[in-house]
Specification:
- The protein is an all-beta fold.
- The chain has a single domain, classed as Beta Barrel (Thrombin, subunit H).
- Helices cover 0% and strands 58% of the residues.
- It has a six-stranded antiparallel β-barrel.
- The protein starts with a strand and ends with a strand.
């Protein structure tokens, strides 16, 4: 694994007393090496109200020792051999376990809005 990512979990929110703007707060769960792979070429599209929403499915691969990641944690790629990946934010959609696995492989959904 030659890419790097940071995984954060939403812990709450803060409200600016002057503007009333609500900002989510996050705690870092993991920072280190990873690999992002597209699991399939097709995208899934659905209509939400009057707006089309495209869902891109990818897979996050982490060292098998990483056990603290949960569904809905946010992954941000911080370094990659593919410069187009850097800065992308994705959400963990499921967990995977297995006796003979050599890496932790987690499905992701790209956050596009």
């Amino acid at each position: 694994m030659v890419d790097a990512c940071v995984i954060r979990r939403r812990t709450g929110e803060t409200t600016d007393p002057t503007t009333g703007e609500v900002t989510p707060t996050y705690a870092q769960v993991y920072s280190g090496k990873c690999r992002v792979q597209t699991r399939n070429i097709a995208t899934q599209s659905s209509n939400v109200g009057q707006q089309r929403v495209d869902l891109f499915t990818s897979e996050l691969q982490l060292p098998i020792e990483v056990v603290d990641v949960l569904v809905n944690d946010v992954v941000e790629v911080t370094d990659s051999l593919d410069p187009a990946l850097v800065g992308h934010s994705m959400r963990v959609t499921n967990l995977a376990y297995g006796t003979h696995k050599t890496a932790r492989r987690l499905p992701l959904q790209e956050i596009t809005s």
